[in-house]
Amino acid sequence: MTTAPVDPMIGRLIDGRYQVRSRIARGGMATVYLATDLRLERRVAIKIMHGHLADDNTFKTRFVQEARSAARLAHPNVVNVFDQGQDSDMAYLVMEYLPGITLRDLLKDYKRLTPEQTTDIMDAVLAGLAAAHKAGIVHRDLKPENVLLADDGRIKLGDFGLARAASANTATGQALLGTIAYLSPELVTRGVADARSDIYAVGIMMYEMLTGEQPYVGEAPMAIAYQHANDQVPMPSSKNPTVPAELDELVLWATTRDPEGRPRDAKEMLDRLREVEPAIRGGFAGPVNATMVLSSMPAQATPTAATTVLGVAGTRGVATAPETPPLSDADGGGPDAAALTTAAARRRRRGYWILALVLLLTGLAAGTGWYFGSGPGSYAQVPATSGMSVEEARAELEGAGLTVAQAERNDPVVPAGSVSGTDPAEGEQVNRGSEVTLYVSTGPAIIPVPQVTGLPEADARAQLAAFAVAEAPVEQFSGDVESGSVIAVLDADGAPAPEQYAEQGELTLVVSVGRVPPVEGLPAGEAETRLVDAGLTVTYNDPVFDAEVPADHVKTADWTEDPMVPGSTVVLTVSKGPDLVAIPDVVGKNWEDAGAELRDAGFVVDYNAAVDIAPSLFVVSKTTPAAGETALRGSSVSVNFAGF
Asked: N or C: which end of the chain has fewer CB within 10 A?
């Protein structure tokens, strides 16, 4: 007989605060455990990233993103996130613990749900999703496994592990993420997702809830993805004729292949669902409602003469017809007066007991209603207080019937002195009179800024996850830092970031785009193309003669800025080649005139005799190079004289 291996996490104390009790579930990126928060003495769910992913910055960034995405939401239909951190090499996320089942478990048990049940669940899912969309968050992994049905009846949306801030088109950046059965066509074909992609997944979930099966099946994931990209989801009534037309239309609207044809966000779809809900509940003639409550006691039959027992001896517990009462000899056939009097007295006593019991039950019901409705046993919802002053928040909580304890904590968003939140969080249901901790912000925490110079941009962003790093980096040319790596980090004022900075403070990365392309010696056209392709602007100086650089080639490339950034200007100086001049014809001229003419032409004159002895005797006989030949301006020309 073999025993299952013991999970080493069971019993471990995480971060000196969370005592792990048991394992709840295991996923592809993390394992979820039931734990006790020893500081606040409450049960929580703690999600711990798998050890083999701890060194992968991409997964770690996605794990931290889940915490931030979910923490930005405060809604009764979204699982609350309480804390996030790292203990040794373990990244963890602390969430609200909801004992219960998932929508997937419910579908496994019941196969398909009634239209009324589907409407109830989708109302809660869309309400939570609408809060996410309003906060600018796209879930990107909606499926029945992520819809939690608590034992107390609450329905919540969880697992924001793939969530990302929404833009006009939020690209996945890598392979397709999310479960293939719920992927929208645009995710399959273009790898982009927005709020309408979540709506598509909601439509697929509704189809599955109403029919008991997914619209597309296949042996390989790509086969299912192909159907999502090319086919229209059928109406649920084609599989289940009892589905109302209103839900058919809602599913078709949500699963339209063109995103422009779908609801723009969950709020629009929720409004439509609530519009048609009365028709779904009132006009649907389906099977008997499974939640109908019937009395546990059978209706008492109306008493008749044949069933009334007036205490006949020897027949206890048996309903039989009584014997006809004996007739009196005195009245010649009337009923026995003593028997009738005894029966009437018995009926009166039984009526008093019934009246007393009814009055007692009525009193108990009224007391119970008061106790749980407005008395100590009633529930109160924690009101929203974030951003209020302490006085306003305290008055709001006490007005809801709660007692208030005050504490402080850092908050990167809420200004110091204002309320940053409560524990339990806003929207939660608690017993009236319960104590709620009111957190007053002390402003953002001042934390060290990691040294990321020289790291690839993605790695630098992962290390700076505690700060608000600008999406668009400053690009700069560098001959020392390779392209795509960080040259520097700037603070909100554009100065180099200090060693310590406010949590969630604004930072900007300066990222290298490589060196400015070297173009000296290249043909001018090719040089300009290389510089323009690198994002630079090109202007020209006047061309110059150069004996060493061929004509129409770049002699020099001068920068106008330091450092150079995309858009900066490079000034090119192009060579005209060597400066060649024709030798003038000075044969037969005296040495003075010949020398002056050669010097005027740009040459240096070299005589082969001492011309200062008798100037008039020296007549030029030839020059080297000879007259008519060309030579570089500034070069030497030898002059020969007759007789020498």
From this structure: N
Per-state percent for the chain, helix, strand, coil, to nearest 5 = 30, 25, 45
Pairing assessment for the beta strands 569-574 and 537-540 based on DSSP bridges: parallel
The closest alpha carbon to 455, from 447, 446, 463, belongs to 463
Beta bridge partners of 605: 637
10 Å Cβ neighbour count for 62? 19
Q: Is the CB of residue 156 less than 8 Å from the CB of residue 215?
A: no
Q: Which CATH class is domain 100-283?
A: mainly alpha
Stated as kind and residue range, the H or E segment containing 502 is: strand 500-502
Strand ranges (E), 192-272: 192-193
Total Cβ atoms within 10 A of residue 67: 22
Q: Does the domain formed by 379-441 have CATH 3.20.20.60?
A: no
pTM over 0.85? The answer is no
Query: Counting Cβ atoms within 10 Å, is residue 270 exposed (0-12), middle (13-18) or buried (19+)?
Result: buried
Classify domain 446-512 at the CATH topology level: Trypsin Inhibitor V; Chain A (3.30.10)
Nearest-CA neighbor of 195 among 258, 270, 137?
137
3-state DSSP assignment of residue 292: coil
DSSP assigned state of 577? -
Could you list the active site residues?
141
Is residue 207 classed as helix, strand or coil in its secondary structure? helix
CATH 1.10.510.10 segments of the chain: 100-283
Which residues make up the CATH 3.30.200.20 domain(s) of the chain?
13-96
8-state DSSP, 31: E
The pair of three-digit structure tokens given for residue 392, joined into one six-digit string: 């306003």
Rg (CA), the chain: 45
C-alpha dist (Å) from residue 24 to 11, 97, 98, 100: 14, 10, 11, 11
User: Is the CB of residue 207 less than 8 Å from the CB of residue 233?
Assistant: yes
580-641: CATH class: alpha beta
User: Which run of H or E residues covers position 62?
Assistant: helix 57-71
Burial of 600 (0-12, 13-18, 19+ CB in 10 A): exposed
Structure tokens at 507: 């930072």
Burial of 359 (0-12, 13-18, 19+ CB in 10 A): exposed
Question: CB of 611 within 8 A of CB of 578?
Answer: no
List helix spans (H) across 430-544. Answer: 457-463, 524-533
Tens of pLDDT along 600-626?
Answer: 988 998 877 655 544 556 777 788 898
Query: Could you read off the pLDDT of 504-557 as tens digits, one per residue?
Result: 889 999 999 999 999 999 999 999 999 999 999 999 999 998 888 999 999 999
Cβ count near 207 (within 10 Å): 28
Considering the chain, tell me which residue range(s) the CATH 3.30.10.20 domain(s) occupy: 379-441, 446-512, 580-641
Question: Minimal CA–CA distance to 160: which of 95, 230, 239?
Answer: 95
Residues across the chain: 644
Residue 171: phi and psi, rounded to 5, are -80, 145
Site of tokens 């001049």: 581
**Which amino acid is residue 309, in one-letter code?**
V
Tell me which residue of 270, 265, 21 sits closest to 126, measured CA to CA. Answer: 270
What would the pLDDT profile of 64-121 be if each residue is shown by its tens digit?
Answer: 766 666 677 788 999 888 888 888 778 888 989 988 899 999 999 999 999 999 999 9
Q: Kindly provide the residue ranges of all beta strands, DSSP E only, lying in 514-641, ordered along the sequence.
A: 537-540, 554-559, 569-574, 580-582, 604-607, 620-624, 630-632, 636-641
- Structure token pair of residue 604: 């240096």
Where does residue 339 rank: exposed (0-12), middle (13-18), buried (19+ CB within 10 A)?
middle
Structural tokens at position 400: 């809801």
